[in-house]
UniProtKB/TrEMBL annotation:
The keyword Lyase does not apply. Keywords: Cell membrane, Membrane, Transmembrane, Transmembrane helix. It holds the Pfam family MFS_1. CDD domains: PDC1_HK_sensor. This is Putative transporter. It is a multi-pass membrane protein. GO terms for molecular function: transmembrane transporter activity. Its main location: membrane. One of its GO terms (cellular component) is plasma membrane. Residues 377-816 form the Major facilitator superfamily (MFS) profile domain.
Amino acid sequence: MRSEPIQIVLEGLRRRPVLEVTLACLAVLLLAQTLIGALSLSALNRLVVDTTADRVEVIARRAAGNIENGLRLGKPLEQYFGLRDGLQDSVSGSRGLLGAAVLRADGQTLAVQGELPDGAVAIAQALDGASRDSRATRRASGALMSVSDGTVTLAVPLAGAGGNVVGAVVLSASKDGEASRRLIVDNLQVLLAVTALVGLGLAAVFKYLVPLTSLAAGGRARFVVPLLALMLAQGVYAAYTISTFRTGWLEVTRNNVGLLAEGLQRDLNRVLGYGLTLNRLRGVEAPFSRLAATFPAVAQIDLVDGDGRVLSRADANGALDVAGLPVARPQSGDLALVLPLGASNSNPRARGDLVLRLSDDVIAAGVRSRALDAVTVVAVALVAAIEMLLLLSLLMNRAFASRATLPDGSRVGPDDESEIGRIARPVMFGFLFAWALPLGFLPLYARSLPAGGLDLPANLLLALPISVEMGCGLLTSLLAGSLTDRKGWQVPVLAGLAVSCAGMLACAAAGNLLMFSAARGLVGLGYGLTWMGLQGFIVTRSPAQYRGRNMTGVIAGLFAGHLSGAAVGAMLMEQTGFRAVFGVGAAMLVLPLAGVLVLMRPYMDRGRKQAGQVAARTRARLSDTLRLLCTRDFGLLLLGSVIPFSIAQVGLLSFALPLYLEAEGVAASSIGRVLMIYGLCVIYVGPLMGRVVDRSRIKKSWIVLGGLVGSVGMLGLYFNSGLLAAAAAVLLLALASCFAGASQAPYMLALPDVQRYGAAGATSVMRAADKLGQMAGPLVVGAMFGAAGMGAGLAATGIIYLCATLLFLMLAPARPRDGAA
């Protein structure tokens, strides 16, 4: 019999197992290092942007403060005499500044210095919240910032006599290109060196330390050795990146403080030039205090004479006592900046130093933030690398194993049937990675779009795209089951990928909220088809005794793609904008398509044959479904656990969390990190909880425990706010998912009514209820936001979840009436 070309290649590879495994693992290492490098460079670029924005905001607020001094006296902004000269004095000598402007709140330009900043009108109009600029992001200080083509544009509000916003000061500056290039080149060199050294070490281990029999037999060394190599390479590079972030943060902060202090240094030198000495200066604590209040990184400012005596000291709260301070000449350091005074003055008593001491707490907070960026990069890259290693292990098993055939000579899949889930897992990972890219900013993007004729409350408008997507996913989830029965699993999977790609492209092109909601609905249609089609693959191809592990593997791939995609999408959005992320998501759907055509192709013919057999079975009638829904046990499971959890899950993760954290001044990348908590918990804690629940005789207790834990997490947001409180709520909701998710299906499948109805049919009904809760989640939480505010609205959702759990606890049977659960 003539061998196929692929078989010839595989035969050749079997003769060189060490070379095959080494090259494959090196390819995965290279891909993983490329990913971590790309994410790290993105984070470094954001570091440069943030530090540039800090510098520009300091200058802008200094200019705004000078203008507001006149506005407090009752001067109208439109009739402010000397506005242009004052603006020029405030920004003169500022490094890298391209242009500055003062505008009214309606966008009318009143004064310009240099070039009018790009987008100045739109960003000024968006400051008071009356309009939206999709390119601008709101900083924790309340300023708006937009980034384009190496330019940072920033706007700060001008408050009138009554405290209302009457205008804006808008500045634009170029990013520090030289510093950015230096950081990027240094990091690339370290990345390449680490990758090369670890790659050589990996090849040496496979060549000299790992037995050939272990590789050929599919031993653990195939997975463990490259995993350890990946962790080593990414750990070393992450440590260097954290050090780079700290050094860069300190350097830029010192430069920004020096930039601010230069103006104060010039003023003091001018006064000293009139013949005064340092010890005769009075009232210098006031400008010191104003400067410290303007820039939080400045802890205190000292005026020191030539002998090292501290003459004056002030912080953001005012003057400080200098009595009893030691006499010592100040020294520059990481947290101290020393600027000479009176250097050209002939009188030695007029010479001294202006000393600015940086806040250790503020610097440490900045370093922690950058370290979290680096840790996020490592986590995302490592999760993705593990998925690539699992795919590599699957491909190597196929390369080393012989193909099995049925007694009639027909070919079955080239894989162990107990590992069917490993085949679908890479496809699920790739699909969810692409789908989740825009997940962290959907409500934020929806808020930037015009309503498109929709007359709904604001919070419901923001929830509409997500709810439409979930509703469409509900419809196609039911349709996918029928398609799988009649035509095979591949039809809904391939159709879903095509529809999702079209939906992503439509999202990028949407011009208003109505069009965007319709586009998200298209994505939801594709999501339901692909997700349920892959579930159909597991159900039809996996033996009954292995369905649990195979389904768990697919769900792990789902959450791995979900958390990786959300974090990567948030970082991409900060660099490229909202619309580009949708385009990237559409392009990346090619990867799961390739997975279906390459990994799952051997199962397509067999799937068509089985589909005809399944379609011939008797189907449950609508009356039977209604009767099942009205039963005390199954109906209460849906109403007391499945639907409330889905409302809380999607309402918090996909809708409330981005809005809640943005209101707290949290960056988009931090929102992605919080979303990662949920996925990591489900991936790594969920299987452990599954084993514990399987050994438990009463599954109801775990369902109730999940409801209690999840509702407590939601209620906690009423009593605490901020990033840590949100992270704790997400963690508790993830634990609730582990408890309830591992126990709902076993509890349901053991019910006599379910067994009479049919296990597969009842599972479809439960999945439909799950989708119904996901569709209702954003609407319920959005309505609560409108009625009670963000914190109280989330707490009210938690109360609904808690009441439903207590209802299930009191009324649902602990065990099936005809047996044990």
